[in-house]
Structures are given as C-alpha cells and as structure tokens.
Structures
1.
Amino acid sequence: MIRGLKISTPFPHGGKLVDRVVTNPVKGRKMAKHTDAVFDIKPTLYQGVPVRNVYREIMSTCYGFFSPVEGSMTKAEVDRILKERRLLSNWVFPYPLVFDVSDEDYKKLGVREGDSLLLRAKGKPFAILDIDEVWRIDNTEELATKTFGTVEGNPEVVREPFDEKMPGWVIYKSLNPVVLAGKYTIINEPKLLPPFDRFWYPPKKSREEYEKRGWRTVINHQTRNVPHVGHEMLMKNAAYTGDIEPCHGIQVNAIIGVKRPGDYPDEAIIEGHEAVNLGGYINPKRHLVTITLWDMRYGNPLESMLHGIIRQNMGCTHHMFGRDHAAVGKYYDMYATQILWGKGIPSFGFPAPITDVPYGLQIRPQNMAEFWYCPKCGEIAYSANCAHDKEKQKFSGSFIRGMVAEGVFPPGVIFRPEVYKVILKWWKKFNYPFCNPKYVKEKEKILEIDLPDMKI
Amino acid sequence: MAKTIVVLLDDKRLKALKGSGLEGKVASLFGGAIKALNLEVPEDKTKKILHAFDTARIDTRDCITDVPIAFNRVTFEEIAKAKSLGPEVVDAVLKRTDEIKVAAAKEKEYLPVPEL
C-alpha cells in the first residue's frame, strides 16, 4: 500500500489472515469428540521414500501462511488453479492443495460429504477436516504435468518436459486417488520442536514482531540452503531497495520439509542463517530467521508465486528473487520467476506481472542477477557491475557441497567460519552433512512438532 | 563441448604432486584460498560419467559436479599416477567405475566429520 513515497505493510493476500487454530484445549477436545471418523496422517511415498507430508500443508494453512486458502481444495477449485492459477474467490494461487487418501482407506473411513474427520499426527489428535466434497483424481500423472506446465502449453518458461527427477512432479504423481475437500481446523495446538521453535513466526506473530522492531519495510530472502557468502551479499545488496531508505528488516524464510538428497538438513539451514547474524555479518537487529513448513515443489515461477503469498501474509513489503529461483534441473527458463514478476506469463493466466493483475499480489519483487567472486575486483561482485568475465569465479552450490563432503575447510570468502561450524554440528549429529534417505525417513517419523496428550 | 572436473587440492595432495610437473597447472580459486586442478573431459566421456553416476550433473560453470567423493579421490589418484591431465586419466577413472560405486554406496550412509 503506498502513502506518499513511504511503503507500509501490505494487506494479507485475500484481505484477511486465516487463523484456524483452536488454542483452548477444552474447546478442541469438544470439537474432536464430535467427529465421525479418525485418520492417522501418512507421508506421501514414492518408491518407498517420503516425498511429502500433508501435515505441513495443514499447519501452513491453519496458521495463515497460505491465506486465503482454508483447507483441502474442491475439484472446481483445483480445475480453476490449473487453468488460470486462481482460487474460486479470484485470488491468485499457484498450486492444488488436497487431502488425498487411498481407495482402501476411504472405504475403511466410510465418510461422506458433511462428515467431520479427526486427523491424528504422531498418534495424537491434531486437526479436523470438515468434508464438503469427495472427488477423485483420475490420473495423477496428468495432474502433475498440468500443475507444472508443458513445453507446448507454456512456451514462455517451460523448457523441458517434467519427469521423475522433478520433486514437485513426483509429489503430485504420487498422490492417492480420493480427495476429501474441506476446511481444516487445528484442534490440538502443536509445539514446535527445537531448533525449529525459535524460528516459528506465523504471519500474525511475524507482523507483530516487525511492528515491535519498528520495521516498516521488510525484504524476504527465500532459502533452502546453508548460506554461503554469495547469499549473504545477495541479502545485503537486495536490501538496499526500500522506499526513502533501505529496507528496515531482512527476513530469511526457510522452507522446512522433505528435501532432495544432497540438500543440507533443515536444522543446519536455519542455524546457518542464524549464524550470519550471531556472527555480526548482518546485524541481528536487522535480520530475522523464520520458517515455513512446506515440501518444496521446485516449481520455479509457480513456487515464487507461493513464496510471494507466504511472505506478503507474513507482512513483508519486498521479496528478492535470483536466477533459477526454487528450481531444479533445466525444466524452466532460468529467469522464469523474474519473467513472472517482471512482465507476466500469459499461458499461466498472467498477461501482466502478478502484482499488476486483479486479485494479485502487493509484495514487491527485487529481481537480482548474480554475485560472484572476482579476484581483480578483490570482492564479491555483482554481475551487472563486474566486467571481468575471464577472472570471475561463480559460487556453485554443488561445488561448495563437494568441498564440504571432501572435508576441505572452506575459506572465509565462501563460508563464514561460524556458518561452517553449524554444518559440522549437524554433520556430527546425523553422521552425514546432507540429506540422505536415512535422514528423510527419520524426519518423517519425528516431524517438526510434538502434540500434547488429548484424551477423547 | 568439453566439460571440466575440478579436483580440489589440500596440503597432502599438493605434496603428492611435487615433482610431477603438474605444479604449474595448479589453479588458484577465490583469491588463492583454494587450489585445484582442472581436468578437461571430452563430451563422450562426460556422457559416460553422467550415465554411470546418477547424482552427477553439469553445473552453471560447465563443470561436472555432485559425483561421489570416491570419484574425486580416484581421479586424483589417476592424475598423480599418470602425472598428467590428459585424456588417459578419465579413461583410467572410468575403468574403476565399479570400485567407485561400491565406495559411493558406503558414502551415502556415513561420512567422517572433519576436525576443525
């Protein structure tokens, strides 16, 4: 929202923050008693390995990260998203979000429209799903492809057909065929486990925190990585935007959920970012590390739309986007996200940037190019400034991961020593520096929460 | 187009290269903070590497990355043995694919934590 030249906190997407968490245990228990069936939440599996857990979608929905979405989507809503990337209420939204069960589980449950389902996580009451509609996904592979686009249908940004190497495509392909659509309500307030608890700032709380800190403008940095110095430079330089002065706050919002093998563990990612401010490289007064629970789809422009929604709901005024944002492989154009925010993608329903369409977003993009190390400049240089093409040395995430895996102590120009120590801390804990199948399986048992006992 | 494998050199590896004639080919990265050898890999051999190791990929620098650590170790051993960065090194590494795969399977479960 613009008043004069100063920018103020944007409205939540859809106008109002969704808050579907019952904090009174007596009320929660009462609601749980009136349900028609009980279901234990299971992870979505692909070849026996967890690729998604719907509990994270329930958390992010009920705590308002995905406002105005309130639950599992009806068929009409999913169809509209796939066609125009809009909810039935017209607000833009990138992905179908559904509560899916197998035919066998559906038969066992014996529920129908109008019924209420008690959802348990880790064996304890967690949430309620009020079923408005039961519908079927006829072909999950078709749904997966429609979700992310095709080379022919979305020629502006899709470069290669999606396949089993694309985690988001695998998630949709692995869904169960029966969808129970309706609103979720968390009836047993979860406790975030350490170290996640201290980074838990759902939209209502993050907005309060910004106000407490006196932040009018806040730029968000999306992450799924332990920060190297190139990331730090991106954060610092992107934050020079703002209104009449640079952004007051730099928020890091880490996506916590199932990761690709080779990614860093979530614990190392968030504490690695925290080490940047504890080490004083970005003043902790200006830097806030937060999390969102979500199994990343790696949908580049579509994922950036979701990131914009989450961070606008959290109260951010700006969002930095780099090259290959939330991308894997070469499925999308490396600048697909910047195309969406810079000029729009008509084939996805956006003839103009998504900030310039009706029911679009208010958060402002800060589209950035690259940072690299230039020995001639003697600094981490911004690609639009540095003309030393022959001398430049790019920050390659995979090269740095290789260095870490080989046990080579990374120089300060790559990792701050405080950040590297965090990698080692979690390496010792998991016996491995990166996500491997053992870590992923274990994580899906523990999740990121504990639930209080609730007798029904 | 040929791709590159960047072989990192720590003190131990630098010592092993002494007298090999390769000292002059050691590249300095990130202001001299990292030493490495750049091994050129022809296109057909690149394909073989990508096929043999499912995590391997080409990064934004046109380098072959995300290979098993054992692959890097064997590559260095073959460079040191051949005292060369020629095409015979890649051939020798590819001949040891089975051995690398066995080591890589173990690496997926456990990697020793380096001492600071």
2.
Amino acid sequence: MPVMNIIQAVNDALRIEMRRDARVVVLGEDVGKFGGVFRATSGLFEEFGPDRVIDTPLAEAGIIGSAVGMALYGLRPVPEIQFADFIYPAYDQIVNELAKFRYRSGGQYPAPVVIRTPYGGGIRGGHYHSQSPEAYFVHTPGLKVVIPSNPYDAKGLLLSAMRGEDPVIFMEPKRVYRAARGEVPEGDYTVPLGQAKVVREGSSITVLAYGAMLHTVVEAVGKAAEQGIDAEVIDLRTLLPLDIETVLASVRKTGRVCIVHEAPRTCGYGAELAALIAEKALTHLEAPIERVAGFDTPFPYTLENEYLPSPERVVASMRRAVEFQ
Amino acid sequence: MAVTAKQAASPDEPYAVLDDTGQLLAGAKEPAIPAEDLKRLYRGLLLVRIMDDRMLRLQRQGRLGFYMTSTGEEATHFGGAYPLTADDWVFPSYREPGAAFWRGYTLKEFICQLFGNSEDLVKGRQMPVHHACRRINYVSISSPVGTQIPQAVGAGWAAKISKKSDVALVYFGEGATSTGQFHVGMNFAGVYKAPTIFFCRNNGWAISTSRDRQTAAKTFAAKAIGYGMPGIRVDGNDLLAIINVMTTAVQRARDGEGPTMIEAVTYRRGGHSSSDDPSVYRDPNEPKKWEPRDPITRFKGYLEAKGLWTEAWDQQQREEINSDITEALRAAEAAPPPEASTLFDDVFVDLPWHLREQKQLLLDEIAAAGGVRKLSAH
C-alpha cells in the first residue's frame, strides 16, 4: 500500500472524484497552474483543464459566492480557501447563503459545496496564517464540519464529503500536512462523516481531539503512560454531526475527560463537548471536565509555542483529572 | 440597437423606445413581439400593480405580516424576464415578482409564500416576498443585499462550463452596487466571461438613502467599464426599451461574449416596504413627478396605437385579475400553517441525532400542552 502525506491524500481524493464525476470543479486562488500554495491541487489543472481547475480572482466572497451558484446549477464545486484565516470575507456567503439555501428554499435548492481550507498554528505563520475557526461553522445550522488528522482519513472523508448532499467545511491540519504520513489505499474508498475513531483504548481517562492536536495528544498520552495513566484517545474526525455515542461510551468507561483543541477556549468546540458530556453522562463523571485549548488571545507570532497546547500541558491536564478525588 | 437623436447627443441619457405617452420615439426601433405576447405583458404589468395594491391593503388590515410593492417599477420585471427562455435562471432581489409570474409562478404560490403556510413552496421558512421556485429557475431570495450577485455569476459560469447556452439574470437595486458582493460578482464575471446579466434597478432610493449617497459616479452603468463589460443605461419605465437591451445582452451572453450590466432608471414610488414611511425622508411631491412616466400607461399608449387595447378589454383584464387574486387568497387563507415537525426538515438532507433530539423536545412540548400549539403571531 502506498505511503502518503495528507497533501498527497487530499490530492488523490480530488483526482479520483474528478475522474469519476464530471460535475466536480476545483476553484480558488492559485489552485490551477501553480497547484495551490500547499500543492494540494497539484497536477489537476494539467489533467482536467482550466474549466474544471479554476484560478479565480483574489476574493474569497467571490470564490464561495460563485461556488454556491455553480452548485445550485448542478455542479459539484470544491473551492479552496488558501488559509482558514482568509475565510472571513466569505463568511456571509457561507453562513447566510450556503448553509441556508436548502432550508430557506423549502428543500428546492440544495447547495452541495465542499470548502477545503488549511487551518491551525505551528508553522510560524502569525495571526493570519494560524487560526482555527471551526467553532463559527459548527455553530451554523446547515453546515457539516470535518477535520481529519491523518492521510487515510483525509482521503476517505474528503471523498465522502464530495459525494454528500450537504455543504461541508473541510479543514485540513496544515502543521502536519507533510509530517503525518501513513498507508493510504490506492483507488476509491470512503470514511463516513459523523464517525469518530478510537485511536487508543485505555481505562483511566478519555481524551478528545481532532486534526493537528491529535498528534499532540498522542505524544502526551505516551508520556502519561510512563506515569501510569492509561488514556483512551478519540479522534473525532467530524465535529458536526458529532459521533456522540463513541464519546459517551468512552466517558462511561473512564469517568474522566480531557478535551484538547488549539482554537481559543471560550465558546470553543470543547465547550459544546463538555456541555454534552455533562448533560448525558454526568453521573459517570468522577472529575471536572478538563479543557486544554488555545488561549483567548489573538494567535501570536513569536510566542506560538507558548500559545499552542503542548504535550506537557495536556499531560498536566490529564493528571489533574485523574488525580481528582 | 437604433438610438434616438437625444441619446446620440448624450451617452448618459437612458435608452428609450417610447415617449411618456407610449408613442414610438423618432428613430427608435420597436422589438418584434407577437400581439399575443404584447397583451400578456400588459396583463402582467396590471397583475403586479393590482396584487401590490391588494396585498398592501391586506397588510394594513393586519391580515399579512409584511409586504413590499413594486409600484412604478413593473416594467423592469417583465422587460428582464421576456427575452429569457425557460432554461435560463433568474436570481431575483425582493422587488421583481413579475419576473416570476411571467415564468409561470402561480398566484396561489405567490400568496401562500406571503402567508408562510403549509402550501408555501418555501415551507414558511422566510418572511413574505422571499420567494423561491425551482420549477421556473427562480432562485431563493436573500435579505442581505447583493449576495445573489456572485451566485448568479456562478450559475452562468456553470452553464458555460457544462457547455450549455443558458444565461443567468441577476436583479439588484442601486444600493447593492455599494456592496463588495457587487464588486466581486462583476469582476469574476468580467474575467471569466460568465453569461450573466447584471440588472440594476436604479429606483433612486435604498430605504431612506438616495442614489447620490451610493456613488459619486455619474451613472451606475459607468461602473461596468471597470470590469471590462458593457454598461447600458435604459429607461426603466419603458418596457420595450428594456426588452431591446435585454435581448442584446442575452444574445451576447449566449454567443460567449460575456456579461452585460444594465442600469434601468426608474423610481420607487412606494415605501421600501410596508414597515417604511417615506414621508420622513423625501419630498412627497417627488413620487408625483414620476406618475406621468408610469410604465403601464406608457405601454398602454403603445398597445392602443397598435389597436391592441380597448377600455373594455382593459376592464375585463382587471376584473379577471381581481377575481383570480380573490380566489387564490381564499385558498391561501384556508391552508393551515406548516406542521411543527417540519421546522427540522431541510437543514441537512438527513436528520442528524442532535436535530432528532431537538425535534422530539418540541413534539413532547406540544403533546404536553394537549396537542395544542401556540403559533407565532403574524
């Protein structure tokens, strides 16, 4: 089985779907001849031509606005927003338009657009190349939000997203774009949306994470194991719809929870997870729910390692939960 | 397009075919429209005028929550829609219902949308006048101004990518030209020669903001130059002139020559909506100045000169329209509101667990109240 990184897996998924379905078009800034600033669309322009791999003018609202119109007409657009930090000019088109088209038209006009965007810190990108804005989109009725952590899931989830009937925000963890490598089957397969994955089974605490933070958590769990903490790690993969059953089954078993994400803490996705667990499994909890998140500051440049959850910070959080009497 | 001496003398003068009494201007070229269509167009103009009058009264009586009239702007609806085929797409704003009627939207569908009842095509999900009808390629209306502009570019562009000859017509008011959406839409369409027609209804007012607070440019049509497309100023109260410029724009788009911007110069004689009070911000004599230029009177003059209009025929049309509206209204008022459970439909194609839970919560609440549900007031 070939070994790929996340970029190659995304590229492979796009190529497979574009070969399979002539309605699929890719559009965005620098996605054509250049193949994208991260090379995710590399080679697609050569294979599918300028009508299906489109270098757009530099305007995110135009990219998403026209993608919405293309989807209404019957195409399957997969726009790329070059960095998640640049998605806000398209916010109205995503939140007020794309997310609501099916609903506000009484089901007459679905708009199946899959927006791919690299997100997250750890690449020395400062405030405008590091943000993790998933919570805004999870909060918007009508959008599905998917964040893979590895190449296998990236390919399978992206293929599922492109074959679905709903709009999807597909956020790619750019810090591990190339670092996360793994075996990826050739050809077609899908990973269904809405299914989390138990990455490591354990009994002392449930650790919930997604995207790049999954790697931080795996490192932390290794260190914690040396201290006798046997953690169960769940890669959520899809934030909306959430696989609540997998989360609750684990919490019922361990009684302790640590949630890790790099987005700011306040009203971050962890807040929703904590509330759901409290609502549905309070009697199983043996300690307050722990959250390790980005600080409630703008994303910094020089101090990004201080800002981002580190394995040490995750271990400390896990210890607090496990030692709570 | 043949231009009159007046237009030749001043490029900013709106292109016109008819004078204010409906007589052909010297040198103007009338579009070739079959007599039956001319009469249907006239009836369409009347329908919108009468419907607006009756629905606004209904709103004042408290039987309808909200309404928006098009009085004085009806020619823009039909002039835009007439040159299109059934396969073309319309991305409307909220003041072009005539374009929907022309394409086959029924009176009952129109009124059911206003009431948001169980027979409303959009299932009571939107405020009155936010229609959507896929059967006629009349795309769902959004309240935030201008968002439909890049979407219409995408639809036209998609037709081109799909090797189809369909075009997209997008309506917006002159206020929308101040938005970023207008800029990105025009720019994308210009660059990729999308077969999209940008129809700016310049009616002088965006709620209380006059056109000279939207732009320092002399005309709105002038903006087209910056996007590499033609911009045409047309008399927005002259149905034949609009049909002429639209026909040229549609042909250009189908021939792969790209987009056109049309500025239809007209006037919003009524309020922005039933919630508006124009007496607070504009001279009440201003709308009166536009009454002699009324699009229906002008078109009537043209038909009369052609021997297609008589007082008796006109009266008959009005009576039929009124009785059709009464009948549709009766049917709409009899239709119950949507089932409470439909609140959760169409958020996604399937119902995820969290929406299933919330739906059950609502159904339990209704059951606990003995099956009686308190409706939101309209």
